[in-house]
Structure formats: C-alpha cells, structure tokens
Amino acid sequence: MRWGIEQEEYYFKIYDEDKNVAAYFQPDYGQIEPKEREYEIIERMLKHGDPITSGLLYMPMAKFNIRDDADYSIDDVISSIEDALSRIKQWRGVVGMRGSGYVIEHAWVRRAHTDYDMLAILLVVRFNIQVRLFKKEILNALAELLDLLVDNGLI
What we know:
By secondary structure, this protein is an alpha+beta fold.
C-alpha cells in the first residue's frame, strides 16, 4: 500500500492511499533536559533529522457500534461486543511481532480520544536501526509494519 505522512507539531499523521488517517506516530525523543526547553529541543531535533530508535504508533483498535442516542436489543449488544472482542484478540498477536526493521515491544489500550465508542491501541515500536526524523525515513521504517497490519485486516 502507498502511505503518506505529515508532521503535526511533535508527532506524525500516517495516511492510507485514500488519504484517510490510519495512525499517528509519536517518536521517542529520549530524555530531554532541561525540561523547560523540551519543545525547543524537539523542534531542533526535527529540523536537523536527529536519529531515533523507537516510538509509539497509535491507531484504532475496535469499535463497539453502540451509540448514546439509540436503544438496542440484548442480542444486538452481544453481537457488537463479540465482534469487538474478536478484533481485540486479533490485536493481541501483534505484541512481540518482528519484521526486518522493527519489533513491537509492548502495547497499551485506551479509549479513543475522538470516538468514545472505540478503543485505540498504542504500539511501542523499536526499530532495528536508527531512523532519522525525516518524514520519508519514518514512513519507510513503518511501511512494512503498516502493510502487515493491512494484510491481517487490522487497518
């Protein structure tokens, strides 16, 4: 799949070929000192393409399809929850996944900040080589993983 990337402040938006946001990537900028100069230092790192070795990939995980403004039968709710559970179980297999250029070290789940009916997953991605903070290099480092997630029906 052909992916796109745009910088948004100190993180990156990853787009699919239809220009839909597929994920967000937050580089691990390391321990930045002094804290009061954190934003200035990160801006400099981005400008100069400093190397990173890991980051967080944030993406939708499972949607429950239960809205606030509707009533549902018990069977409909059970079906929605079973569908969501099936999808969540698919994601469980991602932790520890290794590719030629990355390993998924850990994952956290949280309620999506834009849709309260959805869970989002944060994947800790460690790269096998240093990746410079340039959009093209970040995208190249993530493309294999993103393609695999598409192949597995997770994106």
